[in-house]
Design a protein that fits this description.
Elements: H1 14-27, H2 32-37, H3 41-55, H4 61-74, H5 80-90, H6 95-102, H7 110-124, H8 131-139, H9 144-167
Amino acid sequence: MTTLKVHNIETAPEGSKALLENSQKAYGMIPGLHGVLAGAPGLLEAYQTLHQLFVDSSFNNEELTVVWQTINVEHACHYCVPAHTGIANMMKVDAALSDALRNRNAMPTEKLQALHDFTLKIVRNRGNVSQEDLNTFYASGYEERQVLEIILGLSQKVISNYTNHIANTPVDVPFQKFSWSKENVEV
């Protein structure tokens, strides 16, 4: 049962209607998350803007997936883990990477493992990382820009993950085949 309304173009506040129309054009549907976020036009706009900024960051598709799913799994988001599994498939990311992220297994490369580990440190420590943590991340081939871009991705994911927890957003039909629950993952 949802605890927040999932809007469509007709029921959304005026300030969200054009944003939902953009979602419809981009995805061929209005994702349930967007429908919930539409209840606050500024939040939907912020989410869509952060999403595009993160997609346009220096990260490649595998790295985007690592950051998104690391955060989604850590936050135990029942909606975003399946949605980003489907998105990763559309982005031609190897399913083995998605499976590793969903199941908290090792990443396929040392560099992706470093990205995963550092993202977790930022999330778990609320941004309080040490110089040693930074140096380890830099030694894997990343730079200050990527530290800041992880924060950008985290900003997007906080909006979606927290909203989905409160709203209990139903997983969209195209992503239901990728359903996920934290109970199925060893911590």
